[in-house]
């Protein structure tokens, strides 16, 4: 079944790409639409250079795409459903509810599903 092998490898590559907390937060920041690097950096409380470093592989794998406007680069998700997919994945971390960390998961779920997040901390 070579097609299963190919698809499994592609999915594993995607999961490796997403396997960084900053990249997950970045995707969730872009869920509501296009943002420039400065806006993302401010929302995530990270240096703009770090945001750019994470955007590069996401762009290379076509998770995000960019648009230039003068000196500014604006980024958006190519498939916004990936952000919803990450929220659904929170169900798999909910086992931590039993370990007393459930409040953190619920706080993140609320942030990631809000229409206008105030802070993506």
Number of beta strands:
3
Mass-distribution shape: globular
Number of domains: 1
- The chain-level structural class is mainly alpha
Protein name: Regulatory protein ArsR
GO molecular function, one term: DNA-binding transcription factor activity
Keywords: DNA-binding, Transcription, Transcription regulation
Pfam families: HTH_5 (PF01022)
Summarize the SSE layout with pairings.
Layout: H1 2-18, H2 21-29, E1 35-36, H3 37-44, H4 48-60, E2 64-69, E3 72-77, H5 81-89, H6 102-113
Antiparallel strand pairs: 1-3, 2-3
Organism: Erythrobacter dokdonensis DSW-74
InterPro entries: ArsR-like_HTH, HTH_ArsR_DNA-bd_dom, HTH_MetalResp_TranReg, WH-like_DNA-bd_sf, WH_DNA-bd_sf
GO molecular function: DNA binding; DNA-binding transcription factor activity
Describe this structure in words.
Residues 3-97 form the HTH arsR-type domain. This is Regulatory protein ArsR. The protein is mostly helical. It has a single domain (2-113), classed as Winged helix-like DNA-binding domain superfamily/Winged helix DNA-binding domain (Arc Repressor Mutant, subunit A). Helices cover 56% and strands 12% of the residues. A 3-stranded antiparallel β-sheet has the order 1-3-2. A hairpin with a 2-residue loop joins strand 2 (64-69) and strand 3. Helix 3 (37-44) packs across helix 4 (48-60). The chain is globular and about 50 Å long. 14% of the residues are buried. Mean pLDDT is 87; it is low at 117-121.
């Amino acid at each position: 079944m070579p097609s299963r092998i190919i698809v499994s490898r592609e999915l594993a590559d995607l999961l490796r790409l997403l396997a960084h907390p900053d990249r997950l937060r970045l995707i969730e920041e872009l869920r509501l639409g296009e943002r420039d690097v400065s806006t993302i950096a401010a929302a995530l409380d990270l240096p703009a250079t770090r945001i750019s470093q994470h955007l590069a592989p996401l762009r290379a794998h076509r998770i995000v795409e960019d648009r230039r406007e003068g000196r500014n680069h604006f980024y958006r998700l190519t498939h916004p459903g990936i952000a919803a997919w990450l929220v659904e994945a929170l169900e798999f971390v909910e086992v931590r509810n039993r370990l007393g960390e459930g409040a953190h998961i619920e706080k993140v779920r609320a942030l990631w599903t809000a229409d206008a997040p105030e802070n993506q901390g």
